[in-house]
Design brief:
The complex is a heterodimer of chains A (77) and B (580). Helix content of chain A is 13%, strand content 16%. Chain A has 77 residues and is of the alpha+beta class. Chain A has one domain: Alpha-Beta Plaits (2-Layer Sandwich), CATH 3.30.70. Chain A is globular, with a radius of gyration of 13 Å. Chain B has 15 helices and 17 strands. In chain B, β16 and β17 form a beta hairpin. In chain B, α2 packs across α3, α3 packs across α10 and α12 packs antiparallel against α13. The longest helix of chain B has 26 residues. The chains are: A alpha+beta (77), B alpha+beta (580). At the A-B interface, α2 of A face α9 and α14 of B. Chain A: Keywords: 4Fe-4S, Iron, Iron-sulfur, Metal-binding.
Chain lengths: 77, 580
C-alpha cells in the first residue's frame, strides 16, 4: 500500500540562534520521554522529528540555553 | 550513521537483579536492591531516559496517600482503601504499605525532596478522601526526578537508557531467567540474563483514545503503553481485576488532572453547570466517577472545578502549584483559553480508559512482597495490583520489591533459558522491519484505540464487547501480518502497538468474565447492573494458559482490619442528597 505524509504543526519550537546542538549538545534529545526530538543533518540544530508529543516539557526545562519552547498543540488549544 | 537507522545485532549481558522501568518504582527498587548487596550487579533498563521518564517526568504536586502518625493510622488507611474498592482487596499488601510509607517519606525527605510543613515543622497533611486525612502537598515536587537520579548515580546502579524490554525469558521449570530488549534508536537487540526481574513499567495509559485528536495527548505519560502488562501476560503471570478500569476526571482537552486534590483542601470543589456540588467527596473512585458521568450526561453538565469563590491570595497559591509542578504546560493551556481561576471555572470531562493501580485496583497480581505468580518475577508501581498506589505506593512497594528480589537473587543461580525462545522473539520483534510494504504502526494504533473507545468504554454492553473483540481480532491480524517499521523509532511504536493490542484484549476478556457491576463506572455492565456479592465477591485473575487467555476467580484474603457492615457502602453514597 503506498504511503503519504500528513501535514501537522508541531508544538516544540527550537530557536536555532540559541540552540548549541552544532557544538555537540543533545540534552533535549536525551531527556524526551517520547523520543521525538532529533538533530537535523542539514542545520545541525535540534528539531521535533515526530509528532508524538505529550507536552510534558523536560526539553524546555533542561535546555541549557533556553532555545526550546513547548507550545500547546493546536488541536487542544 | 544517523539515529533511527536499523542495525542488525544481538548481544548478551547478565546481572543479579534486572529492574525494568526507570520512572518511580523502578529507581527505588534498583536502589534498595543495590544497597542490600552493594557487590551485586543491578541493571535499571529504561525505554526513555531515567532522568525524565515515567509518570513523574516533570515532578509531582503531592502525596495522595501518606499515612502519617498523628493524622492517620495504617488500620484506618487500610479500611478506607478496602471500602473504596468495594471490598475486593488483599489487605496484607495495603496494610504493609501503610506501615512502611512514612519511613519512605522520611527517606525521600533526606534525598532533598521537600513536603509541605506547617509553622510547627510538622507535615501539613490535608483531607481529600471520604474518611481519613492522607494528602501531603509537595510545593517543590519538581525536584523529585533529579533527587532520585543523584541517589542512583551515588549507588552505582547500571543504567541502560533507550532500551525497550519486549519479552521475559524463563527456564523450563518456570523460573525467571531474564529479558529480551531492543534499542529504540538502532533496533539492536540485547538479551539480559538475570536471577530476578522487577517490572516497574507503569500504567497502560495509551489504551483509550483521547478526544483531542492527538494519540499522545493521554492522561498518563504516553510512553506508558502497557508493555509491562503484556510482558507479564506472555510470561504466564496472573493479572488481577483488569475489568476495574482507570477512568479519571480531567481538564477537558488538556487531559491533565484538574487537581481537586490540590485545590480541594483550600475549599475548591467539583460543581455542575448550576454551580452546585453533586458529589460528597472528590477522591477518585469508581463510584465518584459514575456520579461524574451521570452529571455530564444529564442536563446539568458540563462539570467544573470551581475556585472562583476563594480569596485571590488562596487562588494564587493554588495556581503556583498547579502551574509549576506536575504538568507545567497547564498554565500555558489555561492562559491560551483565557481562563482565570478568579473569574471562571475549569471545564472538566472524563478521560479515556486505561489500566493503572495508581488510581484504581487492577494490575499484575502481586503479594505483600511484590512477588508475582512467576518465581523470581516482581512487579511494583502503577502496573502491580496493590490498589490506589499513587507515587508513594510506587516508591514504597518498589522498595519492598528491590529488597525481596535481591534476597531471591542471593539464593538462586541463573536459570537457563532456551536459545530458541530468543530466536523466536527476535523474529517477532524484527518482523515489521522485514516487510517492503504495509500499514504503519500509527494507523494500527489509532484503529485499535478507536475500537477501545467505541466498544470497551463503560457502560459495558455484552453485545458491543463481542463486536469489539471481533474488530480487534481483525486489527491484530493486520498488525501481525502487515505492519511495517521503516526505522528504529517506528519499530519502537510498532512494539508499543503490540502491547496496546494485548491490553485491549485483556480489558475485553476480563470485563466479560465478571458478570456483575462493581466499582461504579469502572465496571458497569448494563446486562448485569447489580453488585453480586454472593457470586463475585472475589478477585479475577487473568493469565495465559496453554496459549489461551483464561480468567478464574480468586478468593479475597481474610481481612487484617475488619470492616463493619455499616461502613461497607460508604463509598456508594457519593451523590449529595437534597435535604428534606
Amino acid at each position: 500500500m503506498p504511503l503519504a505524509s500528513y501535514q501537522t504543526s508541531v508544538p516544540v519550537v527550537v530557536d536555532d540562534a540559541k540552540c548549541i546542538a552544532d557544538k555537540g549538545c543533545t540534552v533535549c534529545v536525551d531527556v524526551c520521554p517520547l523520543d521525538v526530538l532529533r538533530i537535523s543533518d542539514m542545520t545541525n540544530k535540534a528539531y521535533m522529528a515526530y509528532d508524538e508529543c505529550w507536552y510534558c516539557m523536560p526539553c524546555e526545562a533542561d535546555c541549557p540555553t533556553g532555545a526550546v519552547t513547548v507550545n500547546i498543540p493546536y488541536l487542544l488549544r | 550513521m544517523s539515529l533511527d537507522q536499523i542495525v542488525d545485532g544481538l548481544s548478551e549481558v547478565s546481572c543479579d537483579v534486572l529492574v525494568i522501568g526507570g520512572g518511580t518504582a523502578g529507581p527505588m527498587a534498583a536502589l534498595k536492591a543495590k544497597l542490600k548487596n552493594p557487590k551485586a550487579n543491578v541493571v535499571l533498563l529504561e525505554k526513555a531516559n531515567v532522568k525524565r521518564s515515567g509518570a513523574i517526568s516533570m515532578g509531582m504536586d503531592g502525596l495522595n496517600n501518606a499515612v502519617i502518625p498523628g493524622y492517620a493510622t495504617p488500620e484506618q488507611y487500610t479500611k478506607e482503601i478496602t471500602i473504596a474498592n468495594d471490598g475486593i482487596v488483599d489487605q496484607k499488601a495495603v496494610y504493609k504499605y501503610a506501615q512502611n510509607c512514612y519511613s519512605i517519606i522520611e527517606e525521600l525527605d533526606s534525598f532533598g525532596i521537600r513536603f509541605l510543613k506547617n509553622e510547627n515543622g510538622d507535615y501539613a497533611v490535608k483531607k481529600v478522601h471520604h474518611i481519613g486525612t492522607y494528602v501531603l502537598p509537595m510545593p517543590n515536587g519538581e525536584t523529585v526526578k533529579k533527587a532520585l537520579y543523584r541517589q542512583l548515580r551515588r549507588a552505582r546502579i547500571l543504567i541502560s537508557n533507550r532500551y525497550m524490554a519486549t519479552r521475559l525469558l524463563k527456564s523450563a521449570d518456570g523460573r525467571i531467567a531474564g529479558a529480551v530488549s531492543v534499542n529504540t534508536r538502532t533496533a539492536e537487540m540485547l538479551v539480559i540474563k538475570a536471577k530476578a526481574v522487577i517490572l516497574c513499567m507503569g500504567a497502560a495509559g495509551r489504551l483509550g483514545l483521547p478526544t483531542s485528536g492527538y494519540m499522545f495527548g493521554t492522561y498518563e505519560n504516553a510512553a506508558n503503553s502497557g508493555d509491562g502488562y503484556a510482558m507479564a501476560y506472555h510470561a504466564g503471570a496472573a493479572l488481577a481485576n483488569l475489568e476495574c478500569f482507570q477512568i479519571n476526571p480531567l481538564i477537558k482537552d488538556y487531559n491533565g488532572p484538574a487537581c481537586a486534590y490540590v485545590a480541594g483542601p483550600f475549599g475548591a470543589y467539583t460543581a455542575n453547570n448550576e454551580g452546585s456540588r453533586f458529589i460528597e467527596c472528590d477522591y477518585w473512585s469508581g463510584q465518584m466517577m459514575l456520579e461524574f458521568y451521570n452529571e455530564l450526561l444529564s442536563g446539568k453538565g458540563p462539570v467544573f472545578l470551581q475556585l472562583k469563590h476563594l480569596h485571590p491570595d488562596t487562588i494564587s497559591e493554588i495556581e503556583s502549584t498547579l502551574h509549576k509542578v506536575e504538568r507545567p504546560t497547564r498554565g500555558l493551556f489555561q492562559q491560551g483559553r483565557g481562563v482565570d481561576y478568579r473569574s471562571e471555572s475549569i471545564e472538566m470531562h472524563i478521560s479515556e480508559i486505561g489500566f493503572c493501580s495508581g488510581h484504581s485496583a487492577s494490575g499484575v497480581f502481586v503479594d505483600d512482597n511484590a512477588r508475582t505468580t512467576v518465581p523470581g518475577l516482581y512487579a511494583a508501581g502503577d502496573m502491580a495490583s496493590v490498589p490506589h498506589n499513587y507515587m508513594l505506593g510506587a516508591f514504597t512497594n518498589g522498595s519492598v520489591a528491590g529488597i525481596d528480589a535481591m534476597e531471591f537473587a542471593e539464593s538462586h543461580d541463573f536459570a537457563e533459558f532456551d536459545a530458541a525462545d530468543v530466536a523466536m522473539e527476535r523474529d517477532r520483534v524484527m518482523a515489521p522491519t522485514k516487510r517492503e510494504d504495509g500499514i504503519p504502526p500509527n494507523q494500527i494504533e489509532y484503529k485499535t484505540r478507536r475500537l477501545v473507545n467505541d466498544y470497551l468504554q463503560p457502560p459495558k454492553v455484552t453485545r458491543k464487547y463481542e463486536l469489539g473483540m471481533r474488530r480487534l481480532a481483525e486489527a491484530r491480524e493486520d498488525m501481525q501480518e502487515r505492519m511495517i517499521a521503516r526505522n528504529a523509532h517506528e519499530l519502537l511504536r510498532a512494539l508499543e502497538v503490540q502491547s496496546i493490542m494485548d491490553c485491549a484484549d485483556m480489558a475485553a476478556h476480563a470485563s466479560l468474565y465478571r458478570e456483575e457491576s462493581r466499582w461504579g463506572l469502572y465496571h458497569w455492565r448494563t446486562d448485569f447492573p447489580e453488585k453480586d456479592n454472593e457470586n463475585w465477591f472475589c478477585h479475577t485473575l487473568l493469565s495465559k494458559q496453554d496459549g489461551k487467555m483464561t480468567s478464574e476467580k480468586r478468593a479475597v484474603e481474610p481481612y487484617v482490619v475488619p470492616i463493619a457492615d455499616e461502613e461497607k457502602d460508604l463509598y456508594d453514597k457519593q451523590r449529595i442528597r437534597a435535604s428534606a
